[in-house]
Q: What sequence folds into this?
């Protein structure tokens, strides 16, 4: 059972840097650009509002504040929610990510007021799916008296209990932060998530600090890779040189040893009866060297012949393959255009060979089960769904499901799923 992640942080000023990150005006280094299209806005902005910063300002203008907002005053609270990486992957695979998003928005709207939650973005282009929620800390009631005000015993005019104020401190007291962790864990228990260890010394890293640490680690690893590559090249060069020396020594080692021994003892043996015996020994060694050299040449010739035989066999096989491919392209030109579609049917939709073979004969096939959408990373139920391959105007073959393209079919199923959850679809908007 994994843990929930709930992090709250005060934001000063317009918080434009965080807006650029959340809205993906700038793609961060840890995000996958090929998955950015999977990110979603979970709260629709009012008319005329284009981004998160403008939504914060609109809420402040319409809240009915009576005090002027200070330059350093907290105008928004950043909330980041997620879960343990493995559990978020499980929630995605179970097709419950949309339900998880809906429950998160409902939790914060009930806790802080729907009108104060001005933005919420789901990010799926980073390692773990997570939601960025933006809260404008509008509260009601009289502000807490400071300790020094009590000491001087001055009389301050009490404001009505329903006075609207901008105060992040009232929301982020120590006791309230603890209660948020407790209640949020209860809300997320249905997804197999629980509260983190209370009193743990682990601390959340800010986004800026996380990117800085990641870049520092990447630079360190890059330097180590360069150093290891240089060591590898040096070792390979030394190994190459050693092989050459070993090969030479094998052929000439015996003669060198004999010549050295003769040179060292020639003085003591000169004129003796052993001279002729040494000469015969030297001749035997020379013959042995010539024999070894001949055996080495024969092995080289044999290896060269084997390599040439393998090369000839490969060229013959390759030639036959080219002839077959040319034959197919000439008399069955549509086969080449079917290849991308076959790969899509097999690798993405997990169709079996029997189904794919029948579709490639341009027959309708009834499918029952679940079909996977790579666009939405979700499985959709198919009950007696009719699939077929149709050729478009460009001569390409596409999969049709129930008479429409598979792209349109998946999007229609997505809209039906969202409507069942009560979430407005893009078409309704």
A:
């Amino acid at each position: 059972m994994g843990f929930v992640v709930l992090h709250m942080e005060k934001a000063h000023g317009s918080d434009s840097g965080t807006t650029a990150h959340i809205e993906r005006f700038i793609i961060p280094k840890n995000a996958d650009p090929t998955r950015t299209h999977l990110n979603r806005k979970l709260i629709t902005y009012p008319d005329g509002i284009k981004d998160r910063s403008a939504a914060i300002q609109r809420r402040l203008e319409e809240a009915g504040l009576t005090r002027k907002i200070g330059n350093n005053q907290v105008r928004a609270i950043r909330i980041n929610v997620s879960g343990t990486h493995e559990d978020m992957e499980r929630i995605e695979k179970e097709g419950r990510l949309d339900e998880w998003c809906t429950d998160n928005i409902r939790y914060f709207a009930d806790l802080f007021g729907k009108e104060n939650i001005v933005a919420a973005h789901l990010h799926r282009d980073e390692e773990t799916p997570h939601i960025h929620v933006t809260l404008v800390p509008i509260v009601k009631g009289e502000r807490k008296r400071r300790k020094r005000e009590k000491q001087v015993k001055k009389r301050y005019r009490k404001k009505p209990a329903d006075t609207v104020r901008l105060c992040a401190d009232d929301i982020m007291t120590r006791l309230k932060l603890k209660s948020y962790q407790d209640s949020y864990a209860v809300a997320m228990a249905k997804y197999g998530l629980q509260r983190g260890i209370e009193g743990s010394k682990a601390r959340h890293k800010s986004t800026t600090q996380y990117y800085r640490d990641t870049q520092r680690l990447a630079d360190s690893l890059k330097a180590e890779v360069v150093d290891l590559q240089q060591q590898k090249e040096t070792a390979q060069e030394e190994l190459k040189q050693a092989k050459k020396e070993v090969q030479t020594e094998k052929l000439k080692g015996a003669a060198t040893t004999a010549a050295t021994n003769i040179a060292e003892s020639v003085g003591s043996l000169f004129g003796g009866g052993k001279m002729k015996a040494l000469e015969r020994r030297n001749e035997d060694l020379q013959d042995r060297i010539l024999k070894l050299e001949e055996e080495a040449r024969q092995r080289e010739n044999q290896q060269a012949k084997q390599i040439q035989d393998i090369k000839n066999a490969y060229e013959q096989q390759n030639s036959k393959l080219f002839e077959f491919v040319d034959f197919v392209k000439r008399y069955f030109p549509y086969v080449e255009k079917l290849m991308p579609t076959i790969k899509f049917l097999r690798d993405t939709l997990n169709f079996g060979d029997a189904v794919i073979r029948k579709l490639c004969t341009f027959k309708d096939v009834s499918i029952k089960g679940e079909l996977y959408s790579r666009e939405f990373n979700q499985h959709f139920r198919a009950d007696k769904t009719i699939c077929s391959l149709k050729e478009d105007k460009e001569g390409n073959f596409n999969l049709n499901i129930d008479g429409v393209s598979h792209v349109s079919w998946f999007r229609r199923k997505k809209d039906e799923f969202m409507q069942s959850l009560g979430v407005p679809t893009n078409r309704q908007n």
Q: What stands out?
A: Residues 334-421 form one domain. The mean pLDDT is 82. The two ends are 38 Å apart (CA to CA). The CA atoms of residues 234 and 249 lie 23 Å apart.
